[in-house]
Design brief:
Elements (H helix, E strand, L loop, with lengths): L6 H26 L7 H5 L6 H9 L1 H24 L3 H18 L21 H14 L8 H18 L1
């Protein structure tokens, strides 16, 4: 696939994709290796228009186990997809969904107070929202087809198509 990006633009986009991927991957692995980790505390203190749904997820042990499993493996797989540039657009899409759910579970809106420590004083925009916006960039600038496993898959497909045409 031909790229009209400059070297600096491509480097910046791939670095952004990789950094977000690393963050997702690390968060997933750190949760997976912690036998005591659960999303229950996070979900229990949800506020906002979806809070009842998030609290209900935490109140049922079977549902909570599924949520925790999906959260851990979603983080790991999205992270790997972004870091390696494999199914990078799909990884970006699912990463956006995950971050939107995190944001909506504990939105940093005026009047909402949480026991989860915040690293600053936010009003509407927090780090989760910023990372979500950055994933929109990776979704619409599919660098995996230029630098990543997606490129290798495309090259293999093209090679196969050329071989079939010559057969």
């Amino acid at each position: 696939m031909r790229s009209d990006y400059s070297g600096a633009q491509l480097t910046a986009l791939v670095a952004l994709r990789f950094a977000i991927g690393w963050h997702f991957f690390y968060e997933g692995v750190s949760k997976a290796v912690n036998a005591y980790w659960t999303s229950a505390g996070y979900l229990d203190q949800s506020q906002g228009f979806l809070s009842e749904w998030f609290v209900d997820l935490a109140s049922n042990p079977g549902t909570l186990a599924v949520v925790d499993f999906l959260n851990i493996w979603g983080l790991i797989l999205v992270g790997l997809g972004l870091m390696l540039g494999g199914l990078a657009r799909t990884a970006s899409f699912f990463g956006i969904i995950m971050l939107a759910l995190y944001y909506l579970a504990t939105p940093p809106w005026p009047g909402f107070v949480y026991s989860i420590p915040a690293e600053g004083a936010y009003m509407i925009i927090n780090k989760t929202f910023i990372e979500l916006c950055a994933l929109f960039v990776t979704l619409f600038f599919p660098t995996g087809h230029i630098v990543g496993l997606d490129r290798l898959v495309q090259l293999a497909r093209n090679r196969g198509a050329v071989q079939k045409a010559h057969a």
